[in-house]
Amino acid sequence: MGKRRSGRELLSSLSKKQKKHLREFGEEHPFYDKLLLLLLLHSCFPFQSENSDKSSAESDSETEVEQVSVYHKLLATLKTSPESESEEEEDESESEEAGESEAEMDSEGSQETGEADGGEEDKNDVPEEEEATDTAEQTLSQEQDDGADTSCDPRHGVIEEFTDVKHESEFSLETNFMEEESGDCNADTRDSNPFKQHMDKELEEKEIEKMSTLPKTSSQSQWPRLGQLTFSSTLEKHKTLKADKEVDVKQLYLHKPLESTWPKVNKQFLSSVSKPSDSPFTPLQRELFCIMNTYRDLFYPERNALTNGEEIRHAYCLHALNHVLKANAQVLSNNAKRRDRKPGSDTDDYRDQGLTRPKVLMIVPFRECALRIVHIFINLLEVNDKKKIDVSNKKRFKGEFGSDPEEKPPNLKRPEDYEAVFAGNIDDHFRIGVAILQKSMRLYAPFYSSDIIIASPVGMRTVIGAEGEKKRDFDFLSSIEILIIDQADIYLMQNWEHVLHLMKHINLLPLDSHGVDFSRVRMLNLNNWSKYYRQTLLFSALQHPQINSVFNKHCLNYVGQVAVRNVPLTGSISHVVVQLPHVFRRLEAESVTSVIDARFQFFIDKVLPEYRDAIMSHTLIYVPSYFDYVRLRNYFKKEDLNFTHICEYTKKAAVCRARRFFLKGEKQFLLFTERFHFYKRYTIKGIRNLIFYELPTYSHFYSEICNMMKATDNGMDATWTCTVLYSKYDAQKLAAVVGIDRTAQMLQSKKNVHLFVTGES
């Protein structure tokens, strides 16, 4: 308010001619410094004013767009200072110099030099916090972010929640009633409905105590498509899950409109020769949805962005939307019953809500994922072309979550899996609330008025906050009934702590009532038993101890947990196409916590001395953990070794220099982090000796790095070496690289294992 008021006072002191000049030309007046002009801009173009509820709502008017663009241009004139401009010029000249040197390294084509010259416009950079500078476009989009969500930007001191006054009453569950023509009310009251069976189950304190103290019992079963399943539960005894060979949509108890829309939406994944009478699910979707529909927790570690990623996304979107529609239909139906009930009748029959409205939380890594999810929701809700649903703020959503195809740099070739993962808008800082009521959808709904929240881990972390912060909120997570974590493996490359932080703050009792009618709240929520009813769906491209830990410790569903536990038979080593001897050296460690120090000591005592000789030049050391990378870098500096290093925070110019020095042999060692490879996928040339300090997180990275070893001189390939460090705690990673049979032999034997791969098998 202080800035806005002072800006108005300054504006009032200007003449009409000066105001007109400022609006039309956007020139910096010589009698105002930049700070004062910024204040004037906020007052001249108050698009983010106190009445943000009106201006944040989607507007199709051209005048509003023009105002924003003028503000845009004015801010752009002030975004750099002389000091920052000189720094940028210095950076560019350094980058150009590195690019010229890189061009001399080899003449294998313009693609490699285009990657290495430091001029590549790759939007997948991992930004370094110390160098982050906001352009006018970023500032503008942050101020208009989800839910008028200035909390996405930690620089803002106040969390302003998006409020859409126009649609607030329309999407309120308390003031609306079930439409008579829908006929959904009767469908949702069937006793065999999985939704009602799960949510209406009343647990006893003895059962809660069992789940808190007793270990889980497990059983295994084999399914045709999913493979080996492990079912675990505390309350239910050994139970064999059987896959349904055929699934009738009517037997799934889907909400009425979904029965007709799902076959159309999912048609793209079905065989072109499928008959109308065939199942509307693919074999994978059928088995996954059969488990989802029982409300058991599910862990599926074989998600692949190239093959089955979209199939899985459609399946869990169907389940989430079905759950929300049923829950809302129950509330609207009970609203009508309460309205017509006789005075003095029992009100306990209408307990149909949680302490807060959000029911489904969907965690995805990028904005593109959220965009696809919302599109699936819209398609599932539109019965036909004539009956389009009303989607509020759709234009704004497309602008903030969509992407411009022209932004992608041309002539950049990356592996297919890289292109699939990093498609579209890959901003990883976002959150958006979605409210769904009968035939309408509201995007950018306030969290406490939302049914579904779609967010990234860092987007949730900034709103949840940390202990001791004044502005933090996590009450909206108190009554989450379905938690979906998709592409969990990517969060290992981002920041896994954000996922753990979220799991610690979900399904806690809220600190405020938030206007809830306690006579409508389920007893399970009042007893703080929500976590025992919450269903968690966890999808990943791999099995990892961190992901397994979340599934085992934080998934407490009383119905039980189902995990897919298939073991790899061959491993990614079979995809190595160069003739290369692989030496797997086993290190001993007493515990998981001590393996970090044991690996470091084993490396500097037994492995590194073998590579200190000048003849062992061109040695790349692949380090998955950034903390191990820092430790090794400091040790190499202390020992004054001839080395260079590349990590996810290295500038482009420094990357170019490091690649050039390593290729020409001016640096003997190259420390190389896994996260840099994940985000960039550069080809490192000149590798003759390769050391995997630890097995890679993604098994296919092993073959990718090995296949970079191309001869730079005739006959050099005879001296190639590959050394891998592993311990008994790396069993899952080892199996993904060499296969389950070799892993069993290697873990039983304490000797080093020598493998020689002659090519792709």
TrEMBL record:
InterPro entries reported in the protein's UniProt record: P-loop_NTPase, UTP25, UTP25_C, UTP25_NTPase-like
GO molecular function, one term: U3 snoRNA binding
Domain UTP25 C-terminal: from-to ranges: 572-756
One of the protein's GO biological processes: maturation of SSU-rRNA from tricistronic rRNA transcript (SSU-rRNA, 5.8S rRNA, LSU-rRNA)
Residues in UTP25 NTP hydrolase-like domain copies: 295-562
Organism superkingdom: Eukaryota
Gene3D superfamilies, per the entry: P-loop containing nucleotide triphosphate hydrolases
Any Pfam family matching the protein: Utp25_C
Comp. bias (Acidic residues): 84-134
Membrane-crossing segments per the record: none
Similarity annotation: Belongs to the UTP25 family.
PANTHER family assigned: ORF PROTEIN-RELATED (PTHR12933), U3 SMALL NUCLEOLAR RNA-ASSOCIATED PROTEIN 25 HOMOLOG (PTHR12933:SF0)
Subunit structure: Interacts with CAPN3; the interaction is required for CAPN3 translocation to the nucleolus.
Function as written in the Swiss-Prot or TrEMBL entry: Component of the ribosomal small subunit processome for the biogenesis of ribosomes, functions in pre-ribosomal RNA (pre-rRNA) processing. Essential for embryonic development in part through the regulation of p53 pathway. Controls the expansion growth of digestive organs and liver. Also involved in the sympathetic neuronal development. Mediates, with CAPN3, the proteasome-independent degradation of p53/TP53.
The protein's name in its UniProt record: U3 small nucleolar RNA-associated protein 25 homolog
Organism in which the protein naturally occurs: Cephalopterus ornatus
Phylogenetic placement of the source organism: Eukaryota, Metazoa, Chordata, Craniata, Vertebrata
Gene expressing this chain: Diexf
